[in-house]
Amino acid sequence: MAERGAVKRPLWIFGYGSLVWRPDIPHDERRPAWIRGFARRFWQGSTDHRGVPEAPGRVVTLVRAEAARCWGAAYRVAADERDAVLDRLDHREQGGYERLDVSIHFEAGAPQTDGLVYVATERNRNYLGPAPLDTIARQVRKARGPSGANLEYVLRLADSLREMDASDPHVFALEALLRQEGIE
Ligand code: BEZ
Fewest CB within 10 angstroms: 15, 85, 115, 183, which? Predict the structure, then answer.
């Protein structure tokens, strides 16, 4: 009799940062989605993508916020791509993100699904934590890394959230501050 191995299932990954606007992982489906109990914050330092060690950029992480919904994009990764995608994201995010299991919600009426999300906590060496928004804006303006300008990261994220009609006061307030100061 043929030996039965563990059945591999597709994997849903919830993106709330660059994955929202740059889905650089193989996927079979992308859907606007949200997760409960988290708020997006520009509290993670980036020394290898949107900044350098001498001038870290600021990228998003998630913090616990009981009543909050965080909107983003969910990607369905085929079962046979699962390990490769996780390896790739683990490697890409070696700056300090951890995987968390979450329930991913879609538009009203559609069933939720289990998935995972990468979150950077204060336990990682690049974590910067909260700061006044104008301090964050100043830091974003100055920072640039191998993946490009930190400013581009913020503006693209804000544009993509707007396109999906998602509200995010923290992201939009930072965007407004940056645009108010002028975009080069
Ligand atoms: C994101 O773009 O949502 C993301 C992906 C991996 C780690 C952190 C954020």
Answer: 183
Print the domain residue range for 50. 11-179
Asked if 44 and 94 count as a contact pair (C-beta separation under 8 A), the reply is: no
pTM: 0.93
Residue nearest to atom 3 of ligand 1 (CA): 15
**Cα 50 versus chain centre, distance:** 13
Tally of domains in the chain: 1
- Alpha helix stretches (DSSP H) within the chain: 18-21, 82-92, 133-142, 150-163, 169-180
In a domain, 87, yes or no: yes
Give the residue, by CA position, lying nearest to ligand 1 atom 9.
17
Ligand 1 mutation pick, 77, 93, 118, 121, max ligand atoms within 8 A of CB: 118
3-class DSSP string for 4-43: CCCCCCCEEEEECCHHHHCCCCCCCEEEEEEEEEEEEEEE
Tens of pLDDT, residues 9-18: 899 999 999 9
From the candidates 3, 66, 93, 98, give the one annotated as an active-site residue: 93
Whichever domain contains 129, its CATH number is 3.10.490.10
pLDDT category at 94 given cuts 50, 70, 90 is low
